[in-house]
Design a protein that fits this description.
The chain is 24% helix and 26% strand. Strand 5 and strand 6 form a beta hairpin.
């Protein structure tokens, strides 16, 4: 199911994830250090998580589950709770702004890692269009020429 409200100001942690996994595969970081999901996170994955089609990078037996945690001033007692993606759209229509943290969890080996963070809500302005780095940068027409 897809969230109808667009997400903005997104931070992707995939490079950090890849670097950590490279350390694990090289033997510089033990699996006991990365397979340390708390009981609360495991419970949230079980009851509120959404299974993906990505295998766990550690045990490679189970598909990872994404858990969406919400934070924001307007949430009051609901801040820090895990929610399904479908619930996020309804919240985005009623609240001005809140943050969503997506954590991937393996329910078999307890691997967990922050995957993404983004803002949602009515007052969140759309993100600027991504730059196309293949195009030449715009030239300044009123730029000073010469030196001082």
């Amino acid at each position: 199911m897809r969230v109808t409200q667009p997400q903005h100001k997104s931070i992707d942690y995939s490079l950090q994830r890849r670097a950590l996994l490279r350390e694990v595969y090289a033997g510089r970081v033990g699996t006991f250090e990365v397979c340390d999901a708390s009981p609360y996170l495991r419970s949230a994955a079980r009851f509120h998580g959404e299974t993906t089609e990505k295998r766990c990078p550690i045990c490679r037996r189970e598909f990872v589950t994404h858990v969406h945690y919400i934070y924001g001033d307007q949430l009051k007692h609901s801040a820090g709770q895990a929610r399904r993606r479908a619930e996020l759209a309804a919240l985005a229509d009623t609240l001005a702004e809140f943050q969503v943290f997506v954590v991937e969890v393996c329910r078999r080996c307890n691997w967990n890692h922050l995957v993404e963070q983004y803002l949602m809500g009515k007052s969140v302005a759309p993100a600027a269009a991504p730059l196309d780095l293949r195009e030449a940068p715009p030239r300044l027409t009123n730029a000073p020429t010469g030196t001082v």
